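Q: What residues go here?
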């Protein structure tokens, strides 16, 4: 292809109006906490950005992250896949199979070397267990190493890909690990990495991060991307606050009103769930801001506390890593009661 199609050109080709495009940009810019002036620059940059080729590799995973992507509303999955990006390989969504699918992946990687976005979903078995998971006769580690080599950006989606997730929980039978740890160990090339942790991640965080990448690419500012990430390489617009910070039960926390059991009078009145094991004060995610199901709800609305799924080792929280024994209850708060203000949000 002599000239890579821009996002706006792809939209116009499919009959999408500029008004619809600007609406998408406004919603996404809002989720990124951009000002009105910044949102205008953001929209112009996204429209001018080359439509990126995306290779999505799935390893030890449950398909939950793919399911989450399918439920993005702003933009819809159709707009995201057909207009904003070119999803050239994704095992769950692609029509091709077998050799045809693998040939398409290799062709896209060759044609877009140095610029394609590599999305990784699921943990990767390592060491003597490397061959516990394979695709097309290659271990997950070998496939990942090949794909990372010429990627312009690597995005690890879901806690399994970012931190090992449930497959890496004690006793970690497959020696599962996340993408960042593989880079740090020198087992795969080191490239610009963005982590979108969560089990699964908030769908709008996936779409919004892609839009953020497009905006920076359109402005020639991709080098600034690392500065927009937290210490875990997660986008600050979506992981810069704890779930606790914007929880609708926060006023009860501040007033010292805590449910003592599921279904008690306090729980029925919407009191804070910290004493029932809510991990919101130590969990950085967009659940309480962007929410789920087109901004309809998130777990605290249903009466269940946050389980901390976007943090490293969330499944082993409270477990002694040496013995595998729980030193504190996974579902219950640690002894001593809640801290006065665990996040400094007041």
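A:
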């Amino acid at each position: 292809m002599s000239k890579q199609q821009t996002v706006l050109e792809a939209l116009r080709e499919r009959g999408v109006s500029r008004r619809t495009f600007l609406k998408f940009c406004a919603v996404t810019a809002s989720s990124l906490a951009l000002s009105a002036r910044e949102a205008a620059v953001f929209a112009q940059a996204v429209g001018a950005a080359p439509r990126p080729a995306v290779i999505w590799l799935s390893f030890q995973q449950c398909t939950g992250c793919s399911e989450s992507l399918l439920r993005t509303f702003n933009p819809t999955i159709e707009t995201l896949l057909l207009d904003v990006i070119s999803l050239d390989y994704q095992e769950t969504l692609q029509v091709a199979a077998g050799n045809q699918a693998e040939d398409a992946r290799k062709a896209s990687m060759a044609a877009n070397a140095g610029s394609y976005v590599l999305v990784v979903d699921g943990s990767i078995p390592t060491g003597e267990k490397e061959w516990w998971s394979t695709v097309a006769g290659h271990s997950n580690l070998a496939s990942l190493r090949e794909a990372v080599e010429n990627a312009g950006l690597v995005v690890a989606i879901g806690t399994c890909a970012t931190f090992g997730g449930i497959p890496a929980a004690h006793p970690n039978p497959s020696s599962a690990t996340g993408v960042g740890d593989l880079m740090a160990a020198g087992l795969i090339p080191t490239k610009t990495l963005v982590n979108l942790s969560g089990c699964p991640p908030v769908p709008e965080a996936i779409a919004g991060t892609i839009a953020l990448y497009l905006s920076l690419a359109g402005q020639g500012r991709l080098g600034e991307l690392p500065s927009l990430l937290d210490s875990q390489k997660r986008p600050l617009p979506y992981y810069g606050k704890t779930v606790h910070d914007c929880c609708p039960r926060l006023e009860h926390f501040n007033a010292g009103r805590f449910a003592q059991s599921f279904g008690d009078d306090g729980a029925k009145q919407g009191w804070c769930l910290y004493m029932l094991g809510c991990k919101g004060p130590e969990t950085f995610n967009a659940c309480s801001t962007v929410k789920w199901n087109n901004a309809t709800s998130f777990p605290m609305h249903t009466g269940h506390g946050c389980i901390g799924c976007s943090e490293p080792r969330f499944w082993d929280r409270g477990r002694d890593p040496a013995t595998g024994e729980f030193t504190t209850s996974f579902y219950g708060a640690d002894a001593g009661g809640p801290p006065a203000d665990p996040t400094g949000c007041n």
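A: Context that may help when evaluating the design: The first helix runs from residue 7 to 13. The beta strands are 53-58, 86-90, 117-121, 124-125, 134-135, 138-139, 153-157, 176-177, 193-196.
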